[in-house]
Amino acid sequence: MASLIWRQLGRQVLFGLNRASNSLPRIAQARSVLPYDSASINGLRLASTRSSTKTEGTKSEKKTKAKTKAKTRSTAKKSKDGPKARKKPATKAAPKRPTKKTISKKSERLYPPPPRSPPLRAAQIFIEEEIERRPKPFRFTTDMPEIWVAYNKLSETEKQGYKTLREKRIDEYKVAFKEWEDSLTPEAREQYNRDIRIKKAEAKARNPLKDLKKPTPPFLQFSVELGESQKLPFQRPNTEEGAERARKLKELWDGMTLGEKAPYVAKWQQAFKEYEIEKTKLLQAHLAAKESRKAAKSKDQSD
To answer: Of 21, 30, 146, 303, which has the most beta carbons under 10 Å away?
Structure first.
């Protein structure tokens, strides 16, 4: 009986002490105890219970220390790396501003200078002659109105002479421009057309009269009146209906007497006078601003 108890007890002791750090000294101590002593057996049971409790406590302490150490390491790593930056939403790149188109420099031009353009009106020839005849410097605000008054005082025969001279210059210009255009290479022609487009756009932007509308001529007033009254409805100009409407309008206008046309002409003359007054004001303001800028620039250069 005692041997059976010893065997069972030995198994329990070995199982409990196997996981302990000091398992070998405990096993040696158990083997040295006399097997027939009941007090020693009770002591062995108590020792095994204490060792198992101590082993479980040691194991839980190790786990707690390992968790604390791992937590400390992760905290140190986070503090070292710093807080993770939030990803900013992807923003679209701003569109590139188009480069300003400029006219080709004289040294880069592939084409020779074109022939001089003819005057736009017959009065321009008279104005050019007067500018050459008058003393320098030419004052636009004071000299130009005087030139217009002098031109309006000309007789119809004198004005017709300037009109004939203008038509002659137009014919000469067409021949000269055709010869000049035929002498250009394809690259030079393309560069010239590009420079002309840029030049026109810049001139339009600088024009002080770009927002001033010209008065409607008498014939157009008559056309709009018939269209609004539905007597002759509006039609697209590039269609057969539009061409037919234009033909009927011309027949109606030509068939009217001077007395019937008088209201439209009077309305146009009044609007044209107001247009000329507003035009003169804008031009004078533009030239005054130009002269003030020129004076300020010369003053800065002198300083």
So the answer is: 30
Rg (CA), the chain: 54
Render pLDDT for 166-204 as a digit per residue (tens, 0 to 9).
Answer: 999 999 999 999 999 999 999 999 998 998 898 888 888
The parts of the chain modelled with pLDDT lower than 70 are: 1-101, 103-104, 106, 303
Please state the pTM of the whole predicted model.
Answer: 0.40
Nearest-angstrom CA–CA distance, 206 and 118: 22
DSSP alpha helices (H): ranges in the chain?
Answer: 2-17, 23-32, 38-81, 122-133, 140-152, 156-182, 186-206, 218-228, 240-254, 258-302
Closest CA relative to residue 32, chosen from 21, 47, 20: 47
Alpha-carbon distance of 226 to 161, in angstroms, equals 39
Type of residue numbered 276: E
CB 9 within 8 A of CB 44: yes
| 97-116 per-residue burial string, b: 16 or more CB within 10 A, e: under 16 | eeeeeeeeeeeeeebeeebe
Evaluate the CA torsion angle 109, 172, 138, 121 in order and state its sign: negative
Q: Which pLDDT value is given to residue 45?
A: 54
Contact 115, 180 (CB under 8 A): yes
Closest CA relative to residue 163, chosen from 216, 116, 222, 118: 118
From 255, 176, 171, select the one nearest 219 (Cα to Cα).
255
* CA 179 remoteness from chain centre: 42
